[in-house]
Hints:
The protein is an alpha/beta fold. It has one domain (about 40-175). Helix content is about 35%, strand content about 15%. The chain has helices spanning about 5-25, 25-35, 105-110, 120-125, 145-165; strands spanning about 55-60, 65, 85, 95-100, 130-135, 135-140, 170-175. The strands form 2 sheets. Strands 1, 3, 5, 6 and 7 form a 5-stranded mixed beta sheet that branches. The protein has a two-stranded antiparallel sheet with strand order 2-4.
Amino acid sequence: MTDDWRKRSLKELYRLTGQIFSQIPELARLWGGAYQALNFADVPFTPLRKPLYECRLALITTGGVHRRDQEPFDMSDPHGDATYRRIPASTTLHELTITHDYYDHSDADRDLNILFPLELVRHLVNRGIIGSLADSYGFMGHIEPPHLNTLIQQTAPEVATFLKQDRVDAVLLTPG
């Protein structure tokens, strides 16, 4: 068995598992109940210090959303892709796409707002409910070791630095 064959087999297994979980939600709930998530002793929660109508908001998704002119997420690595894609605040929904094989995103393909509510946030900004929209970020969910360390130690801190530089007050996280 070659390493390439193992990678392709594992990737196909993950894709098939995602399809099965989409069709049989109870099975997904059972798997989720047994899943050992990462636990951190200290969670850096920061409450809002000003009203939402004064806040600068960014969207972050693990649904594999990115601009069509950006490099797609690497779906050939069964351990995932720990990189991110910066999505400028001026991006339209028509300029976006999803690269992620491990969940059924057919509904989001028809209306990306259900996964990445860009138009809704713009509407809330226009109504004065949210102060402004900053650049947003797309990640691919399903990241396993060894890429998990890259995500925790490099990629996420890099995006956090960009968010601080952009004076972002709040982030709306959406899963894939």
